[in-house]
Design a protein that fits this description.
Layout lengths: L7 H4 L3 H16 L4 H44 L8
């Protein structure tokens, strides 16, 4: 379920602005937590990021397969030998 323009909020930040935002959010989330709780929260957020990266990689892989199949199909339709049966 892809949404175009879904990340326009994040795209509006410069790389340095994104780092500052991330540090600010981390500071807010850590407020009132002890070291162990911060560690667990950080690990959980890392798992979310890793899962998002995996999903993105799988989507790119599937798109590459679809693009490859489409280009093979178009090449086969141009090649008269490819349409002949053996």
């Amino acid at each position: 379920m892809a949404q175009s323009g879904g990340f326009s909020f994040f795209q509006s930040f410069s790389p340095r602005g994104g780092v500052i935002l991330a540090a600010l959010v981390a500071d807010i989330l850590a407020d009132g937590l002890d070291a162990d709780q911060i560690d667990v929260l950080g690990s959980f957020i890392t798992i979310i990021g890793d899962s998002l990266s995996f999903i993105s990689a799988q989507m790119s892989l599937e798109e590459g397969r679809e693009d490859s199949k489409c280009s093979e199909d178009s090449e086969d339709s141009k090649d008269p030998k490819a349409s002949r049966s053996l």
